[in-house]
Specification:
Distance between the termini: 22 Å
Helix content: 55-70%
Order of helices and strands: HHHHHHHHHHHHHH
Shape: globular
Mean pLDDT: 89
Largest sheet: none
Number of helices: 14
Length: about 280
Amino acid sequence: MAGNFWMSSHYGQWIIGEERVLEAQQRDSKSLSVDDVKKLHIFFANFIQALGETNKLRQQVIATATVYFKRFYILTSFKSIDPFLMAPTCIFLASKVEECGAIPIQRLITVCSSLIKSRFCFAMTSDFIYRPQHVLECEFYLLEMMDCCLIVHQPYRPLTLYAENLGGPEVLNTAWHIVNDSLRCDVILTHPPHMIALSALHMSAVIHNNEYAMKWFSDLTISMDKITEVSEKIIQLYEMWRGFDEKKETPSILFRMPRPRSSHSGSLSGSRCSTPSTMR
């Protein structure tokens, strides 16, 4: 039933309420504000995007990896597993699930190390310390935390289907970028993918002043209030992102972020998390 969103684990287990998102954002409130947590997710979504692009992965794989990252930390604190390890682990697992072929794990480690030394040196001044065995063990915890719910329904397919009715590539192109950007907020956790697709198309139609597209939206049976609700979340993301000086603010946020307990054996077992029995 993975092909049907309404019969999938994505809908059944991984569409969660706004109150659950806020609860997760406040989990580490002793050291991080809600805005700090949102900025961390922007930063690590950028890091996952860079990892995926450097490894020449399809956007679908990168998007799935980003959702895995969000699912893990919606359930547990940043101190459970270092997000710098979780990010490549999500990429590694998503590459297998999306059937593009698993990335050679040593190459993934090498790319991580290279990116941190070049594009993300402001966030980590030391070398990337993790090795293939850490990624493999982290993958086990990720699978356990997600209850092996690996199929993620992304907005890209409904986006392209809806766009066939609108004519002209400019609306689709802009909407595609909006969907990519939306991975940096929590709408993929709180709303069905077709609603995110419709919201991105509506925002794009407004940007391009496309009267044909606006007429198409006026004829929809779906409530515009629901579409607007998603759009407002994405607009809030853009407002925060625009004011987020990543290179200046990220080091301070990472310094205050709760850290995993270290293990003398090099294992992650000291940071293992228990899986909650329910999401809702």
